[in-house]
Amino acid sequence: MGQSWNPRDGTPNLSGKVALVTGANSGIGLHTVKHLASKGAKVYYTTRSEAKARAAREEIRSLAPEIPENLLVWLQLDLGDIGSVLKATAWMRENESKLDILINNAGLATKDLETNEAGWETAMAVCHVGHFVLTNGLLPLLKNAAAVKDADVRVVTVSSSANHIFLPADYTLDFSSPAFLRGELPYEPWKYRYVQKRMFNINVLLYSMAKLANVLFAQELQRRFDQAKIPILSLSINPGAVKSDNATDYAGLGRGLFHDSIRRYCSEVWRKPEVYKGKYLEPFGEVKEPHRVAKDLNQVHGFWETTAKEVEKYLSRRYQASLLEW
Per the record, a Pfam family (predicted)? Predict the structure, then answer.
């Protein structure tokens, strides 16, 4: 963590670009909104409530008063509620013609196993499933942006080093089963049972599974973009140790690891997109190996197909809706 990267110096002019950032009420999301808008992008920032949106807007304006007000647009979104996601994506498709930058940032960590109305584990529902449906619903706008000559369209999914730190390399995973969506773990590794439970106020195994899902999603999304010859870059990043809402969930020494400044991927990503397609990045823009399951293409494909199948079943039953064609 010795060096830092200043997004003000490493981000190009974004005038005319349209961006959307989830989980923008504080921390990583809020600062990402600020930096994108300060470079000229029109930024849709999502929060679950109007009160949080108002507070976020006031903080952004206090930090960067030079940002024109019309570049900050609130979009109500609760990623744990698929109905909210459908409503938000429908609104975007009706009111925007393109989307150049999608930052899937919102996350959640819980202490105990909790499930939502669909039966999905809460962290997995917010970190992965909600973003899966959101990205799908925004595909027409992303594709429109990518159809323009010399377009530079990005889908950045925020993960965490937890995906390979807390899940043992030989951890038994089966993404062909929907059990992973329900938070059903094969077993508790001894390090978690005897050490990590005492160190953290969250269930780091469930959180790690959700963050691993972010990596696999970004990787498979890129493969599908490439297969369809759609010039969009998808990648996942570990933003580094930052001060965010989830920082308060770490007990003891863990809290000392969090720095004040946001760490984003380095300017090299902007200049050499081919190097980073589908990759997992850690500070500062360095390609890293995530959990080894990401190398098992059968697992990665199973993960995608299982997610899509379970989402389709839920959409059909609850909303008489379906996913758009990827």
Answer: adh_short
